[in-house]
Design goal:
The complex is a heterodimer.
Chain A (H helix, E strand, L loop, with lengths): L4 H8 L5 H4 L1 E2 L5 E2 L28 E9 L5 E9 L5 E7 L7 H12 L3 E5 L11 H10 L5 H17 L3 E10 L1 H12 L4 E5 L30 E6 L7 H13 L4 E6 L16 H18 L5
Parallel strand pairs in A: 5-6, 5-7, 7-8, 8-9, 9-10
Antiparallel strand pairs in A: 1-2, 3-4, 4-6
Helix pairs in contact in A: 5-6
Chain B lengths: L5 E5 L4 E4 L2 E4 L2 E7 L9 E7 L8 E6 L1 H19 L2
Antiparallel strand pairs in B: 1-4, 2-3, 4-5, 5-6
The chains are: A alpha/beta, B alpha+beta.
Chain lengths: 304, 85
Amino acid sequence: MLSQQGELAALIAPRRDVRRVLSIASDGRVVGREGMKGEGLRFRRDPTTKGEKSVRYDAVLAETVGIQGAGNDEIEAYAARPMDGGSRGGVLVIHHMPGYDRETKEIVRRFAVWGYNAICPNLYSREAPGAEPDDAAATARANGGVPDERFVGDAGGAVRWLRALPTSNGKVGTIGFCSGGRQAFLTALELDIQGAVDCYGAFVVGTPPEGFPLQVQPLADRVAELRAPVLGLFGNEDSHPSPDQVDELEKLLQTHGKDYEFHRYDDAGHAFFSVDRPSYRVAAALDGWQHVQAFFGTQLSGKA
Amino acid sequence: MCTYSTEKIDVAASSGKGPDGWFPLRTATVYYDHPVHAPDAHTVNIDFLNPERGPGARVAVELSLDSARALMAALQVTVERAEHH
């Protein structure tokens, strides 16, 4: 392990192009531009070469950070970003209604491995700080869910955090699952972002039943305000949103001349990306991830 | 988790046992949605809560539809019996 905090800071500083900094010397030691020794770092020496040879540097830093959300409240967020410098887009990941859980954090890390800076704010930070994700989700549900205005403030804080990173290219996209799918769409209505992925979000269209205790309102009458392209991924066996509701949303997007791309899967219902639930559908999830990668590849490349 | 279908009731003069022992219950939410743990796409879930004691003051169950129906029948019978005591 690195023994000096200063050395560690030098390694993780986002401005550093660590790919160039680190290399393997002829004796197999990992050395840096400033002569640092990374004795504990796991680099393989390529046996086919002689002398110095760099190997692909793919380190990702994943950590809990504090960001400034709605009402200037400091809220918890989980962030992951590649450590190889460069200039890259950012992805705001919006967790599903079961909360800021292990699976959502894995998704955040997935985006960092794909080369994006990524962050997921804990939308239940205020009502359940430090709680287990399922307990926090139960508390949020009992309180009527997350109000849209507060969500938009928290999402705005996460977007600012992404754009403030030295490696940011200024472009930010968002992806949300379940309730987060609706919130991703809402983000594209409210904030300056370059793309939104709605994964089976309910009540983008459709009206919640009377007496409904959660604070969600449909967004159908606001489609004209959409500020970014939308990728929608839906299961044809889902009832929230139902195929009819997806049709309705698609018509609205067409009517208003919005840039969108929908993919709809047979033999898949709600939450088909959830690897640890019976709803997981391998074919839909694999195809869906490919579309997400292509969409962000297009929307988040280059400079803003 | 997005059926959003949720009923909420007040709970009085009742107790539940959570990870830190017994505590007084204040509310319960009943909803049909994706479970965290039960092996099905949707279950009937009940959270007995005491918000004053924080999110961890929670007794949670995730019931299959058949189990929820059986529970409902058992509650019906038991409550009717209790009214005759």
